Amino acid sequence: MVKADRASSLAWGFAGAMAIATVFYFLQVLGMQDWDAPVEFMLDRWFLIVPLIAGFGTQVGLFRAMHLLSHHGGGGTMTASGGVSSGTMLACCLHNLVPLFPVLGASGLAAFFTSYQTEVFVFSIGVTALGVGFMIKKYRLVKRAME
Fold first, then answer.
1. At a CB cut-off of 8 Å and minimum separation 6, what does 62 contact?
2. Backbone torsions φ then ψ of 43, nearest 5 degrees
3. pTM (2 d.p.)
4. How far is the CA of 114 from the CAs of 82, 87, 120, 121, 135, in angstroms?
5. What angle do CA 143, 145, 147 make, to 5 degrees?
6. Per residue in 78-122, pLDDT tens?
7. Domain around 19
8. Structural domain count, the chain
């Protein structure tokens, strides 16, 4: 891979990580109705949030690298495992929207995610790690095919 392609993949990965972090932050702001509480939450749970953000960014960077190599393939995997990471981060934030849940008929969902927040994060980190591993394998196959 040439330097420009590597830089492009890194930039895409960084942008993906920042995008998912921003979405997570604003979902927290929406739920907590406070601009500072999400920062405190992220600082308190950084060891659960950083792997998700980094994993999503890595998947975006690998997808870009594969796209530059072959102009096809790999996107479904990033979407699936990245979607799980994003979905889990969203689900984690749902307990902050508890006042709306009775109207939506989802009070039990809020209670579940409040009680099992750490487990949901750990599950998502595992799925993200599997997604990154699969993307690395797919990247190597595409790279080998292009040689």
1. 9, 13, 74, 78, 132, 135, 136, 138, 139
2. -70, -35
3. 0.73
4. 22, 15, 10, 12, 31
5. 70
6. 444 455 555 555 555 555 555 555 555 556 666 776 778 888 888
7. 3-146
8. 1
